[in-house]
Amino acid sequence: MPKPKPPSTPSIPQTPSFPPSLPPSLASPLPLPTLIVFDLDYTLWPFWVDTHASPPLKPLLSSTTPPYTHAARDKHGEEFSFYPHVPAILAALDAHPRVRVGVASRTGAPEVARDLLRMLQIPWFDVPVPAPLDGSTTDDASSSGSTSKKAREKEKAREKALNKERGAGRGKARKAIEFLGHMEIYPGSKKKHFTRLRETTGVEFGEMLFFDDEKRNREVEELGVTMWWVPDGLDGGEFERGVGEWRRRRGVVC
Ligand SMILES: [Mg+2]
């Protein structure tokens, strides 16, 4: 059942920041979903883009300069942005070497949604380098006494490469659309969206975690996807609970 329209324009934070702490699951060496997929309306942002936003949209000055709080204004003067924790979560996922990100939205206004994702900026966050995978160091560490040196060198090289990659955009905000590698945006059952995501990414359904505010979309679990219901939108806590559920179903003890 559709949600009632909220009584007023949602409040938008004045300073983007990480959730109280970076989602710990991303810093952990425990398994993570290979593909994390987000719904848009009432999951990443607090509105329905097809009924609340009236094009043409225009980026606001504050969307391209610090603190990057407001993304766009529509022809009626309404302003649109993400839920408060979303920019930091997207930045952390973007920096993570083991996770890819996608969108599955059934909005009837895919072009408006894409326009907004081009206007919304993700500020620069100095995201910590995730912990290495178990296998990347333990093999070396068990081979001989000088290993730890070898393992350290390997880890150093990996960090150097990662920092070099991130260095190019250091300090700069980037368009949100650049953080969402795989987008399926069109009306209809989300089983179709996920079937397409399976084809385009090559990722198995069981390796996907999906965040959505509408229970009806739980039907994607018939494919083997794990869905985490976020009735009040995505934040750092819901992100952790979603990853926890995905791990629980795979028998991972956290
Ligand atoms: Mg939704």
UniProtKB/TrEMBL annotation:
Region entry Disordered: which residue ranges?
1-24, 133-170
Family matches, as InterPro entries: HAD-like_sf (IPR036412), HAD_sf (IPR023214), HAD_SF_ppase_IIIC (IPR010033), MDP_1_eu_arc (IPR010036)
Q: What spans are recorded as compositionally biased (Low complexity)?
A: 134-148
Any single GO molecular-function term of the entry would be: acid phosphatase activity
Q: Where is the composition biased (Basic and acidic residues)?
A: 150-168
Q: Where is the composition biased (Pro residues)?
A: 1-10
Give one Pfam family: Acid_PPase
- In Swiss-Prot or TrEMBL terms, this protein is called Magnesium-dependent phosphatase-1
Q: Which organism is it from?
A: Pseudogymnoascus verrucosus
Q: What is the lineage of its organism?
A: Eukaryota, Fungi, Dikarya, Ascomycota, Pezizomycotina
